[in-house]
Amino acid sequence: MDNKELVFNTLAKSRKPLKNSEIAEFSGLEKGAVEKAIKVLKTEDRVFSPQRCFWQCK
User: Fold this and answer.
1) What is the number of structural domains in the chain?
2) Model confidence over 12-43: pLDDT tens digits?
3) Residue 33 structural domain
4) pTM of the model
5) For residue 25, what is the domain's CATH number?
6) What pLDDT sits at residue 55?
7) DSSP-derived secondary structure letter, 57
8) Do the Cβ atoms of 23 and 34 come closer than 8 Å?
9) Is 1 helix (H, G, I), strand (E, B) or coil?
10) In sequence order, what are the residues at sequence separation of 6 or more whose Cβ sits closer than 8 angstroms to the Cβ of residue 51?
11) Rg of the chain's alpha carbons, rounded to an integer?
């Protein structure tokens, strides 16, 4: 599984919006890898930010 799908699955399992550091902690990825994956997921319109610095699946 690539980083993008791992980040998406981590967000999908969460019941609340998560910060990048929380996503990194839960998925086991580095924070930089999470940021890159979020950027790609955002352009694919699969995640959104309900408030600043938090991410959630659509």
Assistant:
1) 1
2) 999 899 999 999 999 999 999 999 999 999 99
3) 3-57
4) 0.90
5) 1.10.10.10
6) 96
7) E
8) yes
9) coil
10) 17
11) 10
3-state secondary structure 5-54: HHHHHHHHHCCCCECHHHHHHHHCCCHHHHHHHHHHHHHCCCEECCCCCC
pLDDT value of residue 41: 96
Q: What is the pLDDT of residue 38?
A: 97
Query: Tell me, what amino acid is at 56?
Result: Q
Separation CA 44–CA 21 (nearest Å): 21
Place of tokens 């408030």: 51
CB 58, CB 11: distance < 8 Å: no
- What does the block give as tokens for 56? 């959630």
User: What pLDDT, on a 0 to 100 scale, did the predictor assign at position 29?
Assistant: 94
Place of tokens 């998925």: 27
